[in-house]
Amino acid sequence: MIEVQKTNRADELDYIANILPLATANGIPVIATNDVIFSNKEDYDIHETKVCINTGKTLNDPNREKKFSDEQFFKSQQQMFDLFKDSEEFLSNTAEIAKQCNVSFESKGYFLPEYPVPKDHDFNS
After folding, report:
1. C-alpha–C-alpha distance, residues 73 and 39, integer Å
2. CA–CA separation, 3 vs 31, rounded Å?
3. Is residue 9 included in any domain, yes or no?
4. 39 plus 27 within the same structural domain
5. Dihedral through CA 55, CA 61, CA 62, CA 67, nearest 10?
6. Do 3 and 27 lie in a common domain?
7. CA–CA separation, 24 vs 79, rounded Å?
8. Domain that residue 10 falls in
9. What is the spatial distance between Cα 117 and Cα 105, in angstroms, rounded to a whole number?
């Protein structure tokens, strides 16, 4: 499978324009995904601030690398449909993968690993 995203990042449209003919010519299914970096669109500025802190840059630095876009938030099913309305097959392929996934987890409480200590261990040394 080949993955395509529409997040308004540099060279993304060129990638899509070049990869789709290759996928078609080789019979490779294409899936639509979203590179999620933050939960809500409103969190973009916070994320960029954290990136600047991590890289030692400032938000107004004209030379800082901008790897992320404000479109990398967790989109709803409808938002993804709207984004790929001209490529419904990509969404159908993605849905087929999702049907094969089964994930569950507990989000309440702490789940720390246990490190058994030998009974004869002396904590004073």
Report:
1. 5
2. 5
3. yes
4. no
5. 30
6. yes
7. 25
8. 1-34+87-95
9. 28
Using one digit for the tens of pLDDT, what is the confidence trace for 68-125?
999 999 999 999 999 999 999 999 999 999 999 988 888 888 888 888 888 888 777 6
**Helix (H), strand (E) at residue 32:** strand 30-32
pTM of the predicted model over 0.85: no
Rounded-to-integer distance, Cα 117 and Cα 124, Å: 14
Q: How many residues are given for the chain? A: 125
Range with the lowest mean pLDDT among 14-23, 25-34, 100-109?
Answer: 100-109
In angstroms, the first-to-last Cα distance of the chain is 56
| H helices present in 31-108, as ranges | 44-55, 77-83, 88-99
* 56 lies in some domain: yes
Residue 79's contacts (CB-CB under 8 Å, 6 or more residues apart) are none
Nearest alpha-carbon partner for 37 in 76, 68, 2, 6: 68
